Every structure is written in C-alpha cells, then in structure tokens.
Amino acid sequence: MRSARAIACILVLAAPFAPSLLPTEDPAQALKRGFDAAKASLAAGNLGEAEAHYKQTIVLGLRQLAALSLSESQLEPATLALDEALKLAPHDLDLRLDAAAAWFRRGDIKKAREFVQGVLDSAPQKARAQAMLGRIEIFRGDFAAAATALKSSVDAEFDFENAYYLGLAHLKNKSLPEAQEWFRQLQARMGDSAALHVLFGRAYLIGRYPQSAIEEFRQAVKLDPQYPRAHGLLGYAYLEAVGEEAYPRARAEFQKELVLRPADYYPLALLGIANVSLRDFPAAESALLRANRVRPREPIPYLYLGEIYSQTNRTRQAVAALQKFIALAPVEDVALRDLSRAHYLLGHSFLRLGRPEDARKELARSRQYREAKFRYDAKHIFDEKRPSDQGESRTSDRIAALLEAGSPEAAGAAQSLVQSGLPAVPGLPPVAGVSAPAPAQSQAALPQKTPPETAATRKYRAFVSEILASSYNDLGVMRAKASQFAAAPEFFKQAAHWKRDLPGIDRNWGLAAYRAELYSDAIPPLERHLSANPNDGFVRQLLGLSYSMLENYAKVVDVLHPFLEHPPNDPGLLFAWGTALVRTRQSDAAAGIFRQLLEQNANNASVHLLLGQAHAQQADYSTALTELKIALQLDPRLPEAHYYAGLIYLHQTEFESAAQEFRAELQLQPAHPLTTYHLGYALLAEGHPEVAVPLFRDVIKALPGYESAHFELGRALLQQGDTAGAIESLETARKLVPDHDATYYQLSQAYRRAGRVQEAEEALATYRKLIEGSRLKKRKSLETEKP
Questions:
Q1: Which of 608, 681, 596, 671 is nearest to 647 (CA)?
Q2: How many Å separate Cα 254 from the centre of its chain?
Q3: What are phi and psi for residue 279, nearest 5 degrees?
Q4: Bridge-partner residues for 388, per DSSP?
Q5: Which residue has the higher pLDDT, 66 or 71?
Q6: What is Dmax (Cα atoms) for the chain?
Q7: Are the C-beta atoms of 624 and 615 separated by less than 8 Å?
Q8: Apex CA 488: angle with CA 485 and CA 494, to 5°?
Q9: Residue 778: what pLDDT?
Q10: pLDDT tens, position by position, 633-663
C-alpha cells in the first residue's frame, strides 16, 4: 500500500511534468475506470463512444508512464510516450505543455518552445504556458522576455516556483531593485522562514550578487542554525564576494555545515581549498580525502591534494594525485588554468624524482594550456563579467575554477534550475491558496544518477502497459472490422510494443497489414505467429502471398511447401505458388500446380488471366495470348485481360495490335493510368506524337511521380519540336530517377537544339558513363554466373 501511494504521489505531484490528475484521484483506478467504460461501450455496440473512451484511456496511461519516466530522469521514453499521446489528442493544450516540459528537460529547447508557442497561439492567457515560456526564455538567456512571461503567469495563477523564477529572471536581467521588491512580496505572502532565505540567497548567487546572498544566508542561519546547506552556502557566498580575505570566515561556515552533514561534497572540497590557502595542510588533506570518498570521480580535490603533497615533500603521492586529476579533468575552456597548473606541479615533481625528460614534457604541456587560456581570455575579454552589488567579485585563481565549473551555483545554474525544477525545500510550508514548490525532479545544478526502478514502479508500468496494449488492440480490431485496413496496423503495432505477448496480436497485425497491401509490414508479425502456430494454414497462405507480392519467390516456395500434398483450392494462391516455382526453376512442381489450377477452374476467366500472366513472365508469348483470349471469351468484360495482351504485343513490337488492346481496356477501365501510358507509348512508337502527348499528360495528372510518363512526354515533345517543353519534362524525369541513362541521351539532344551546348555535352557524357557502368555490371554478372 505504501508503494502504491508513492507512485500516486509521483503521478499527481510531479508538476509541471505529470498528467493532469486531481490530487484525490487514484491513478490506477482512473485508468481502469476509463478502460472499463470503453469495454462496456464496445459490448453495447456504441462504437463512437467506445473509441473516445479508448483514446482517453491511452492518453492517460501514456501521461502516467511519462511522469514515471521523468521521475527517474528517463527523458527519452517520457518524450516518446507524450508524442504518441499527442497523435490521439493533438488539440489537448495541457498535453502539449506536458510534451513541452519533457522536451525542455531533454534539452530540445527549440521543440519545447514550438509546443508552448502553439498553445499560446490558441490560449494567450494560459498561465501554465506563460510559465513554461518564461523558463525557456531564462534558459535561452532572454531574461527580459522571461520576466514578462512569468509575470503574466503569476498574475493569472500564483505558483511559488514560477514566482521564484520571476525573481531570478529580474536578477539575471540586472534588475536588482525589482528582484528585491519581488522577493519582499513573496516573503510577505509565504511567511518568514530559513527555507525562503536560502532560496533567495541562491537566486542572488546565480544572479552574481554575492553580498545580497550573504545577507539572506545570514538571516537563514539566524532563523534556523541547522537548516540544510545554509552554512555551506554562506561560506561559498563569502568566497564569491570577498575572495582570499574571506577564507577564515568561509572555513568556519564550512566546518559548521559539516558538523550537520559530514558527507556533503561541496563544503568538504571548499574547506580543503580554503585550508590549502591558509597553509593548514593536515586539515586540508583530511577534508579533500573525505571529499574524494564522497565523489571519487570529481577531479578538483586531486589537484589540491597534489599541491599538498608537493608542499610537504611527498613527491610520489603528488605525482599520483596530479595524474589522477589530469585523467579526470575535462579539457575545456574553464579548466585550462587548472590543467596548466597541474602539469606545472607534475613537471617539478618529476624533476625531484630525477626524471628530466618526463618533466620537460609536463612543463611543455603546462605552457600549452597556459597559452590556450590566454587566447581564450583575450577572445572573451568583452564578455559579461561577474558583477556584484558591491562591485566586482574578488575571487582568486585558486578558487575560480571551482566557483565557475564545479559549484552548485555555477554559471549555468539558472538554466539547470529552470530545466530541472526547484529542489525539494524542507521547512517551507504551503499557505492557503498558494502552491508550494513541487517535489524535485532532480536536484538543480547537481550531477544526478538515474534512480533505480523500484519493484512498485515496475509493477505499475506492467499494469499500465497491459491496459495500453489491450486498448490499442481493440481500436485496431474496430478499424479492421470497418475495413479501414490502412489505419489498423499502426494500432496493432502499438499494442505489440506495450505487450509483446498479447494473445493474437501478431495474427491481427499481420492480417491488417496484408489487407492494407503493406506486405513488407505484414511479413514479420505473420512469421512470428506462424513460428508459434505452424498449423495455422490461413496465416501460412497470407505469408506466402505477401512474399509473392514482394517477388521473394524462394520464400514463397519455402512457406507454402507444407501444402505440397494437399494444395489449397485458391486460384490466387496457386498462381502465386506456381509462378514462384517457375521462377525458382522447379518446373515439374510448377506444372503440377498449374494443372490443378486448370482442373479446378477450367471455366474461370480469372484463372486463365493468371495463367496468361505467368506464361508472359516466362516470355512464352504465344501461350500467354491463348490464355488471355480464353479468359476474354469466358468474360468479355474481364478487367486487365486486354491490358496484359497489349503488353505482350508491345514486347513483340506489334504496336498497332497493342494499341487496339489498350483502347479495349480503356473501354472497361477509362481511368486506368498505366493503360493510358502504354497506349501513348504504342502510338508514339507508331509515329503519332500528337496523339500520345495528351495521353502522357493525363497519366502525369494521375501519377505525378511516374518517371516513365515524364520521359516519354519529353521524347514526344522533342519530336514535335517543342524543345522547351521537352527539356522541362526530361529534367523532371531525371529528378525522379537520376540513373536512367536514356533520359540523359534525350536531354543531350534537347539541350543541343536549344543551343545549350555545354549542358548537352555534360548530359551526353553522363549517358556514356551510365551505359559503360551497365555494360561492366552485366559483364561481371556473366563472369560470376554459374551455368
């Protein structure tokens, strides 16, 4: 029960990233209630109502899973789940904001901003959208725009976290009086507390106003001397504001913090650095070693340990510590100074050990990093400095690297804070009508490990996944029953994603994809189902036909082989099987299949049409025409019989007979674009471009991407003397199929007629290159082909 309550807390309170649920509503019950309502509507035959309930259930389930993923810093699955939910509810503004927040945390600021802007286009005053925009603008560095958006949000709907970010935006915008006044108003509304002063102090540090931060942290420790991190942050603020002069005061605050929290990394590291500067090496070493035990992969303590060991003549330990620092330190602009120093100390340590060559290399590296740092500083000389309300920050090189790169108030802390959300703030009680800070998604500006998935979370995910799978499956079945086969496969695909072993899912998915003529998509689920159910003859037939449509004849033969003794009485399947056997040179088996096809369907016009196609594929044109004529005798209005007869005559260069057959086909199917194309082709071959041109134009209207029609139209226009029109059509054909050699030849002729000699030569050169490539490929094929 406790674990279930914990999950409910994650789902309900993880604003602004969680689904919009009432605080008193149990997430599992809400999801189950929606699913049961969908099932009840489906059973009652209310299909529209059932679909609405299913979609609402899926959207809710996906939002719950996204919230769980975000609580574990699993950002990719969260964004994928929300994007999938938006497919079903694209106009849900809160859902779009959920997606914006998730993409923002994932780091895709552009996509997050597009989501938010889309919401604001529909609802300009929506408080949550304005708040999200404000966070994004802080991240982007447009602090004036951030303050405007956050002010609109807070005025419309007060929320402490957004109000805090408004103060932060004022500070980053160098509007100190506005920030101070705003924080005074917040304090009056929330009540005085150590927690509030710590939050304000952190904002002043992030805004680079350390003196104001000192005042806030002093007030915090006055109100509660044991408040978490208050002493440590006060010590840090002393260093920011005063520099080396503050070491004694800062050290005292770090020591107080460590009495309360002995394993806090930052006070330990800063205490060690302060003690090094005060030359209290034993105390410094103790603090830095403790910091290393807390975070062994942090580089900074190793650098100062190296200095301690160098100063106390422990040269081998100095070498080990400095080499560890160099191995861990990132080679980036902010670390160049420390890297130069580390190599310098390491070089002198090698000199003491009698290793002059190693020392020379290290000192040379030190110079390289020092020069790189100089170049970096020169390049950024006019960049924003670190201002304070009492003048320039007076930090020295000794602590600058830690303050810039490794501290909880680093230069990027504002971005990290708004991206991750406020950390949990102990001791800040909610006030009536006021939202307290949301539970942390992650500690702002601190490196985070991904929390392990708990057993309760895993169990809840399984519960949601099963409901999602069943809902998607039922929607797919509803589409399939309504003959909406193009839409059904995607629902079955999603069902399989959420529950791979959902009973019947592969059969449903494969059948729907087959009916939608998505044969490549149908094959994997049909194969999986047949592997688990080898006696399912219906699925075996569908799989064989799918492979046939993709002309994978070897697989057709393999899949249908179990039917060899008792072939099904299905003309289409027998034709596909027989054709596959012919193509794989199994003529005896093919003869048996075709014989059965004729025996069982002697008076079936469609069978003779299929046989005519099969013989035509084998270039047995005489037999093919005989079968097609029989088919037309049995059914004079049989679609495609005249069409295939026309194709056979084309292969035999009997263009007049081909044209007659294509005209006859168009009497039966007036809008058949392929027949129209081939009629135009036959007429052009007979020397009638004036009749062929309008036919090719009709084909292009119906099939704009049909390269052959553009090519033949270009050829016909060239014959008519319309050079400009020919070039336009041929260039379109080239774009559609860039490696069709004949296109380049025709273009070379057209360019030459238009006086574009250079382009004509280039087209002709490409034509020759493609022809030569085809010749070499054919030769290689003949050389490797086995008799």
A1: 681
A2: 44
A3: 60, 30
A4: 391
A5: 66
A6: 109
A7: yes
A8: 155
A9: 53
A10: 999 999 999 999 999 999 999 999 999 999 9
Query: Helix, strand, or coil here: 204?
Result: helix
Which among 759, 701, 563 is positioned nearest to 713, based on CA atoms? 701
> φ and ψ at 392, to 5 degrees?
-70, 145
CA–CA gap between residue 761 and residue 738 (Å, rounded): 17
Residue type, position 600, single letter: Q
Rounded to 5 degrees, what are φ and ψ at 225? Answer: -60, -15
Rounded (5°) CA angle 478-482-488? 55
* pLDDT tens-digit readout, 768-787: 998 888 776 555 443 443 32
Rounded Cα distance, 214 and 237, in Å = 6
pTM of the model: 0.67
State what percent of residues in the chain have pLDDT above 70. 85
Task: Indicate whether 563 pLDDT > 80.
Answer: yes
Supply 220's token pair.
Answer: 């915090």
- Report the distance separating Cα 119 and Cα 113, nearest Å: 10
What's the Cα-to-Cα distance from 263 to each of 94, 172, 302, rounded to whole Å? Answer: 41, 32, 17
**Residue 756, CA distances (Å) to 285, 661, 766 in order:** 81, 41, 16
- According to DSSP H, which parts of 707-756 are helical? 707-720, 723-736, 741-753
Alpha-carbon 462 to chain mean position? 23
Hey, what are 651's tokens?
């292969």
Q: Is 397 exposed, middle or buried (0-12, 13-18, 19+ CB in 10 A)?
A: exposed
d(CA 750, CA 763): 10
Find the radius of gyration of the CA atoms of the chain: 38
760, amino acid identity: A
